[in-house]
Amino acid sequence: MRRQGPTTKEELRQSLDEIIQQAYNNGVDLNDGAYPLQHDDPDTPDFELMLFQLKS
Predict the structure, then answer these.
(1) Which residue, 40, 37, 32, 31, is CA-closest to 49?
(2) Are strands 33-37 and 47-51 parallel, antiparallel or unpaired?
(3) Domain of life here (predicted)?
(4) How far is CA 11 from CA 5, 15, 33, 40, in A?
(5) How many domains does the chain have?
(6) How far is C-alpha 26 from the chain's CA centre?
(7) Has residue 11 been placed in a domain?
(8) Which residues form the domain of 51?
(9) 11 Cβ partners below 8 Å, 6+ apart?
Protein backbone atom coordinates (compact mmCIF):
# COMPACT_ATOMS: atom_id res chain seq x y z
CA MET A 1 0.00 0.00 0.00
CA ARG A 2 1.40 3.38 -1.01
CA ARG A 3 1.62 6.10 1.63
CA GLN A 4 -0.35 9.28 1.18
CA GLY A 5 0.58 12.67 2.54
CA PRO A 6 3.81 13.79 4.18
CA THR A 7 6.40 11.18 5.12
CA THR A 8 8.96 13.53 6.72
CA LYS A 9 8.80 16.46 9.14
CA GLU A 10 9.85 18.82 6.34
CA GLU A 11 7.05 17.56 4.08
CA LEU A 12 4.63 17.99 7.00
CA ARG A 13 5.87 21.57 7.55
CA GLN A 14 5.40 22.34 3.85
CA SER A 15 1.91 20.81 3.81
CA LEU A 16 0.86 22.74 6.91
CA ASP A 17 2.27 25.96 5.46
CA GLU A 18 0.32 25.47 2.24
CA ILE A 19 -3.02 24.75 3.92
CA ILE A 20 -2.57 27.58 6.45
CA GLN A 21 -1.80 30.04 3.64
CA GLN A 22 -4.88 28.85 1.72
CA ALA A 23 -7.08 29.29 4.80
CA TYR A 24 -5.62 32.75 5.47
CA ASN A 25 -6.19 33.77 1.84
CA ASN A 26 -9.79 32.56 2.16
CA GLY A 27 -10.40 34.80 5.16
CA VAL A 28 -10.23 32.19 7.93
CA ASP A 29 -9.30 33.79 11.27
CA LEU A 30 -6.18 31.91 12.29
CA ASN A 31 -4.94 34.20 15.07
CA ASP A 32 -3.90 32.37 18.21
CA GLY A 33 -6.07 29.33 17.65
CA ALA A 34 -5.97 25.84 19.12
CA TYR A 35 -7.27 23.02 16.98
CA PRO A 36 -7.93 19.67 18.70
CA LEU A 37 -7.52 16.78 16.29
CA GLN A 38 -9.40 13.96 17.98
CA HIS A 39 -10.22 10.60 16.46
CA ASP A 40 -12.84 7.97 17.20
CA ASP A 41 -10.39 5.18 16.34
CA PRO A 42 -8.54 4.24 19.56
CA ASP A 43 -5.49 3.21 17.48
CA THR A 44 -5.13 6.76 16.10
CA PRO A 45 -3.53 9.20 18.57
CA ASP A 46 -5.17 12.54 19.29
CA PHE A 47 -3.25 15.79 18.85
CA GLU A 48 -3.72 19.49 19.39
CA LEU A 49 -2.37 21.97 16.87
CA MET A 50 -1.73 25.51 18.14
CA LEU A 51 -1.15 28.50 15.86
CA PHE A 52 0.34 31.81 16.91
CA GLN A 53 0.92 34.67 14.52
CA LEU A 54 4.53 35.81 14.71
CA LYS A 55 5.19 39.54 14.84
CA SER A 56 7.91 40.77 12.53
Answers:
(1) 37
(2) antiparallel
(3) Archaea
(4) 8, 6, 22, 26
(5) 1
(6) 16
(7) no
(8) 29-56
(9) 5
Q: Which sign, positive or negative, has the C-alpha torsion 35, 36, 39, 43?
A: positive
The residues facing 51 across adjacent strands are 33
Side chain identity, residue 38: Q
pTM above 0.85, yes or no: no
- Return averaged pLDDT per consecutive 10 residues of the chain, 56 residues in all: 87 96 94 90 96 86
CA neighbor of 13 nearest in space, from 5, 4, 3, 25:
5
Q: Is position 36 within any domain?
A: yes
Residue 8: inside a domain = no
